[in-house]
Amino acid sequence: MPTTRLPAVRADAMPAQPPAVHHPPLQIAPEAFLIQQLHGEGMAPVAVNVNSLVIRGAEPVIVDTGAPNNREQWLTDVFSIVDPLDVRWIFLSHDDVDHYGNLEQVLEACPNAVFVTSFFIGERMGVLLDNPLPRFRWINDGDVLDVGDRLLVAARPPVYDNPTTRGLFDASTGVYWASDAFATPVPSFVENVDELDPGFWAEGFAQFQGMLSPWLSIVDNERWYAQDVAKLVDDPDLRIITGAHTPPITGAKVGEALELMSRMPAMGPVRLPEQADLDGMLAAMNAKVA
Ligand SMILES: [Fe+2]
Ligand SMILES: [Fe+2]
């Protein structure tokens, strides 16, 4: 069994407390289960999903490994769906801590699984991760992974906050794992974006994509970005968009999400919270305590 040497995650790197409320895995398609976590619920004006996915096909796949601050519940949820010894593939969409947060534990618990990633993730995590080369599978944008009863396509989403990012598309179910893309805050837990107020969704969606991809305002929209979005629009098999930071997007909302995504380069830079906002938050928290 390989050994791993990921560093202990600093308590202040992510909210140290696990989410206040447990939301059990949600089946979104045949043999596709969303591992749900909602960070900030009940503690902040808006909350953010930190999801991952399990595809329980002939050769089960874990797609991203969640954040470290809810490790025990995350492992319980994942292994309530699939036996760790049956897991054959661990797909990491990119090397951000809310996606690799339990990678070390999964690699150790699932000795029969191959770590599906890319050359560059391997390089970027090389100093942290002692995983034997034969246990890697490098996959690039457009490459296909045969997992026995279905073919999974590595498909980079139109927006991303990390150069290693790959989404994962399962044409057999129509489920696209978009990694960070299509992210939105939520006012409270919802199982589907169709439960969100459309105006709230559009505003939160724009804010989130702008934060993820500050380069959107300098892309050549017609030549590059529009083509990237069109790949999804034109895919007749795309039925469900899901990802780490959004409730599932289904039905008519798929088209609406793609329409929102197509507009992003024209939105201009987003305004990020400033020190005055932090001061206000701290004052409000102190007033609550006093
Ligand atoms: Fe990310
Ligand atoms: Fe993320």
Automatic annotation (TrEMBL):
Domain of life: Bacteria
Signal peptide (UniProt feature, chain positions): none
Domain Metallo-beta-lactamase: from-to ranges: 49-218
Pfam family, one: Lactamase_B
Identification of the protein by name: Metallo-beta-lactamase domain-containing protein
Native source organism of the sequence: uncultured Acidimicrobiales bacterium
